[in-house]
Specification:
- It is built from 8 helices and 6 strands; from the N terminus they run E-H-H-E-H-H-E-H-E-H-E-H-E-H.
- By secondary structure, it is α/β, with parallel strands linked by helices.
- Strand 5, helix 7 and strand 6 form a beta-alpha-beta unit.
- It has a 6-stranded parallel β-sheet, sandwiched between helices.
- It folds into 2 domains: 146 residues, Rossmann fold (3-Layer(aba) Sandwich); 35 residues, no CATH class.
- Helices cover 39% and strands 19% of the residues.
- This is Nicotinamidase-related amidase.
- Keywords: Hydrolase.
- It comes from Streptomyces umbrinus.
């Protein structure tokens, strides 16, 4: 039987705050609760960096601003810890794995692949913020690593509704099954 895991990606308080949607966290919570009840591992992925951001090149268009803010006296060591906390509405339970990544994909700069292979996990169920960021990048890399894939379309969120629609309706189905939280939980 295929062993699956639910990935909850970049659902950190600071990220959720930038993507206000009052229905998102309760819906995602249903997926998390159903996975736990069915014995499906829930793995959390957060983006995080060391104090001073030594992993970030000034050439990196997405993350380079953080390194510049740090050099100018911006966020300190305590800020990095706070920024990596998963939103309390869907926080990890005891013993659940939290993986820290250093780039957009959940695999980049993390030990996610090691965790998945050690758990004999061959199928990933993707959720997270943003659809056009971590979900897209992780889906592409996971497909190249030969994982089976499901995307919970309403378990993903993007600041651009049209980009979310295009990805979940046209792009993701080329490499993954795309379904809803309700349909996925009903099938567990």
């Amino acid at each position: 039987m295929t062993q699956q895991a639910l990935l909850v990606m970049d659902v950190q308080q600071v990220v959720v705050d930038r993507h206000p949607d009052p229905d998102y966290l309760p819906r995602l919570r249903k997926a998390v609760d159903a996975a736990r009840a069915a014995g499906v591992p829930v793995i959390y992925v957060v983006v995080g960096f060391r104090p001073g951001y030594p992993e970030i090149s000034a050439r990196n268009k997405m993350f380079g601003r953080l390194a510049g803010a740090s050099a100018a006296g911006g966020a300190g060591a305590g800020g990095e810890e706070l920024a990596t906390r998963v939103h309390p509405d869907v926080a990890p339970g005891p013993g659940e794995v939290v993986v820290t990544k250093r780039r957009v994909s959940a695999f980049s700069g993390s030990d996610l692949d090691v965790v998945l292979r050690a758990g004999d996990i061959s199928h990933l169920v993707l959720t997270g913020i943003a659809t056009s960021g971590v979900v897209l990048s992780t889906l592409r890399q996971a497909a190249d690593l030969d994982f089976g894939l499901t995307v919970l379309a309403d378990g993903c969120l993007d600041s651009d509704a049209e980009v979310h629609r295009l990805l979940t309706e046209k792009v993701f189905p080329q490499q993954a099954e795309v379904t809803t939280v309700a349909d996925w939980t009903a099938a567990l």
